[in-house]
Amino acid sequence: MSDALRAEWTKLRALRSTPWSLFALLISTVVLSWLIAASTHTNRCPISEGCHDDLVAIALGGAYLGQMAAVSLGVLALGSEFSSGMIRTTFAATPRRDHVLLAKAVVVGGLVFVAGLLASVLAYLIGSTVLAGNGYTAGNGYHVAGFGVELRAVVGTAVYLATVALFSLGVTALLRHTAAAISTVFAVLWVPLIVISMLPMDVGLKLGRFCPMLAGLAIQRSTAADDAIPIAPGVGLLVACAYAAAALAAGIWLVARRDA
């Protein structure tokens, strides 16, 4: 397994798409968080009418875009080998195919987690600073989360991004085609959001608890907003992790039982 880990780390570093995907994850998360925070001002939410803005979730809102780069990295980490035929060499060098996929999962998940944590920290620091400048301070009567909630949201966002990358890796192992895997993952993440918007609100919120993106990003929530997906932050992240675990388990099982 240690040899498989070293080999997968070497291959992932050699892919030209890897640094670009990590750079895109960092920049898109931070920039979108800054734009969302800059467009959110207390003038649109007077205290007299009650303000339910979740400042932590707003400051980390860039993760909705950053996850696209995590999907790209997770898919290309395996899809590039299937498309080039290099996967045959990989399986010849490491006959235990489950070791190959597990090693890829460790390397991809760890790398995306580190990049996601850096992106989350920067996004939160920049976003919260911009929000404070726009009038969202405790002195003005707005809810300001404690350190424990902020830490949970920031670290949880990094875990979610790593989970998305692992889910993408598992789907790629199932489909063995880069374009098909990216399309499938995007559909699983974003199509439920479109469907829910067409349903009655109470039905849509209940269904949202079972959607990987909506449930997983509940980890960012710091207030009990009326329009939030009705699921606890930790439970929501577990739902997203369950999708990734199921995809990886199915991918490992199928890869071990068919030709490369």
UniProtKB/TrEMBL annotation:
The keyword Thylakoid does not apply. Keywords: Membrane, Transmembrane, Transmembrane helix. The chain crosses the membrane at residues 20-37, 57-79, 100-126, 153-175, 180-199, 231-256. The keyword Transmembrane helix applies. This is ABC transporter permease. It comes from Solirubrobacter ginsenosidimutans.
